[in-house]
Each structure stands twice: as C-alpha cells, then as structure tokens.
Amino acid sequence: MSAADHPAPAHEIRERFGFWKRSYAMLVKEFIQLKRDRVSFAMIVMLPVMQLLLFGYAINTTPHHLPSAVLLQEDSDLARSVLKALENTAYFRFIYEVHDVDDFDNLLKSGKVLFGVEIPRGFERAVRRGDRPALLVAADATDPVAASAALGSLGMVVQTALAHDLYIGNPPEMPFEIRAHARYNPAASSSLNIVPGLVGTILTMTMLIFTALSVTREVERGTMESLLSMPIKPVEVMFGKIVPYVLVGFLQAFLIIGIGVGLFGVPLLGNLFLLALLSTLFIATNLSIGYTISTVVQNQLQAMQMAMMFFLPSILLSGFMFPFAGMPVWAQYLGECLPLTHYLRIVRAIMLKGATMQNLRFDALALAILMLVAMTIAVTRFRRTLD
C-alpha cells in the first residue's frame, strides 16, 4: 500500500478547514469595515467615475471657438468678411469689439481673450489700391497648445475672405497679409507655461494635505479634546492652524519661482509684491478648504482620500494640463469654482505678461470669495463638533 493511499491525518484536515474558515472570517470582517467606512467606499466608486467623465468629456487637446477680441478701426465689408473667415476656421469666437489699443492690450493681459485681431483704419481702401496692408493677429502664447493650432489656420483666411468680396477663385497675388504675433511666449517654450503653473499645483496639493491631516491627527491622538477644553474660540484654533502653513507655502512658492527664473529662464515681468500678496490669498484659500475637509472626515486616511478627490479636478479643469478655453461650457463653470484656475491666470499673467491688479481684479475677487466661503463652512462645522 503506497503513501498516497493513506488518508491524511485528522489534524491536517482540521488545519486545512481552519485556514479557510479564518480567511473567510477575515474577508467578511473587511467587507463589514469597508461598508461602515462610507467615505472610503465613496472614493472607490467616485474616483474612477470622475476620471472617466473628466477625461472623456471635459478634456480637449485641440480647442476650438477660443475667446477673441477685435480692435476694429474700420467697419467695412472686407473687414467683416475677414472676421467671418476667421470664425469659419472654428478656432476664433469674437466676444469683444474694442476701439482703443489700451482696451485691446488689457483684454489679452487679463486672460479674458486668447486672441486679438487688429483691423487698421483705411484697410479696404489700401487693399483696393494694391498697397498690401497688414492685418495683425495677436495671440496669448502663454499656453502654446491653445495658440498653435489657431495660428496655423490663418493661411487660408485670406483666400476665404477675398473669394466673397474681391475675386472669384484664387487670386495670383494676395492684396493683404496677416501677421501673427505670439505675445508673452514667442518661442512657444513649454517651460514658460509649465513652471508658473507648478507653483499653484504644488501649493494646492501640499496645503490641502497638510491642513487636512493636521486637524485629523489631533483627533486621532486625542489631543483635540485637551485643546477644546482650553478657553479658545474656533476661529482662534483655525487661525493658529493655518498661519504656520502660510509660511510653509511662501517657502515653497519662493523655491519654485526662484528655480524657474534661475534654471528655466522664466521671466518675472510683473510686480513681485503683487505676486506675493495674491499668493498669500491663494494659500489661505487652499488652507481653508483643507480645514473644511478635516471637519468632515474621521481619520487621516479619509482626509488624504478627500484631499485627492479635490486635487484631481483641480489639475484637470484649471487649465494646468489642458487648455481651459477648449473645455465644454459646463466644465469651465466647474473650473471657475476651483482656486487653482484663478491662481494660474494670476501667476502666469504677472510673471509672463507684467499684469497689474487692474488686469487681475476678477480672479483676485474670485479667490477672496472662495476663501470666505471655505472659512465660513470650516468654522461652522468646527463649532458643531464642540456642541
């Protein structure tokens, strides 16, 4: 009789059944714990759904119908035909018509438009006399991806415009030319776009996580109860938690901007004090949001998950990775609710365009409103924990 024919000892059989029994019990326990941890379970479901929706519907690497302005110094049939030909390329959408050069420049500096078309006075008369006048198309090239495709479409605009007004078919010599001027980043260097954007992206990630973890850490260690027993108000607790990280954020911003200017050649054309002031506002806004997260979650794992839940749409819908103007309208509305969207416009405008507070007042006001809303929610929820 071989060894294979001998039945297994009873203790081995019990051990095998015991292994599967204990493993099954552990499996059931983990499912029960996951069911109770509703925040983590929501993250498991929401993160892939959010990624799919954002990448599938909101992200567009070849943007169309980009906001544009026209400096119309002459209202003629040919001028209107040129504007219509530009719109027919599907890259330009004229939302502003100005008659002053300063207004034209301010629209580009503030980021309200990505393109500006200047039609000079006496344009049609010069064309008919054969003087070959120039029509200027100024592009905000701080985002090379958004500007390059539109600028590349200008070659057919002349023929399209002239086919309706002056010629039938292709004329042997074009009676005017289009001069494209890529402002603020004429070399289309990606580092001039990425490095300023990294300031806001890194600050968003670190400020959210640091603040959310600092409060939940107090709760998990039991030191929050001792803190609450002291004669201190919720606003004072919040202020004491936020201020140290404002200094940390300042240090991070200084390092990134310094390295960007020193190693990557990113210019700093604007006022450094204005950049520091608005960076402080942005840091405080993110810290307030991080503090709000800490009042919602119950542990550090949930705090990290919720911070990443906020950070993901921030980098995708703010214009850091993909052109903001190329997203659908609903995604742009969501992006306007994110602090990073406004700060990216601010830091790029100050560093690359030399923008002033007058050009940035809308984005500065939006950051202030977002900060006040986040602070109000955070203090209100923190008071409820005291009751």
TrEMBL record:
Residues 156-385 form the ABC transmembrane type-2 domain. It comes from the Bacteria. Keywords: Cell membrane, Membrane, Transmembrane, Transmembrane helix, Transport. The keyword Cytoplasm does not apply. Pfam families: ABC2_membrane_3. The keyword Transport applies. The chain crosses the membrane at residues 39-59, 194-215, 242-266, 272-297, 309-331, 364-382. It is a multi-pass membrane protein. Its main location: membrane. It is found in: Cell membrane. Belongs to the ABC-2 integral membrane protein family. PANTHER family: MEMBRANE COMPONENT OF ABC TRANSPORTER YHHJ-RELATED, MULTIDRUG ABC TRANSPORTER PERMEASE YBHS-RELATED. This is ABC transporter permease. The lineage of its organism: Bacteria, Pseudomonadati, Pseudomonadota, Alphaproteobacteria, Hyphomicrobiales.
